[in-house]
Amino acid sequence: MRNRGFTLLEMLVVLAIIALGSAGVGLALRDSSQTRLEREAQRLGALLEAARARAQVAGVAVRWYPTATGFRFEGQASTAQDEVLPQIWMDDDTRARIEPAAGTKSVDPSPRVVLLGPDPIIEPQVLTLYSAGQPERQVQLATDGVRPFTLKVLSQ
To answer: 70, 77, 109, 127: which could form a disulfide with 88 (CB 3.0–4.6 Å)?
Structure first.
């Protein structure tokens, strides 16, 4: 009686099934555009709070505004290359706009900059981040002027 193992064809079929299953799981676990947008908002919130802290320490107002390719911080006290805050999105599809804060009486209906300091209490600020490829995907970063910027998901 001969011991019989698997044939080469059987082994190839099993490997093909495993490869297809692995590819399906890999595609299912990829970041969605909403997840990437939320990650960008959390990162921007941390950067805004860092700029706000720098503005308070240095006594210099720091302004943030979106640009065509990312965003910009102006008025940073330090010019050392390693201390400059990032100015590009991690995901190229991310865009931002500054919204008038609810309950504020702004002369300009579309504010152009977010003012971060130098005072510890700033005006309420609202930013909307959205996906250029899927504009219905939006998240907001907002502060009441006292508390840190917080994330609010507007759409799924």
So the answer is: 70
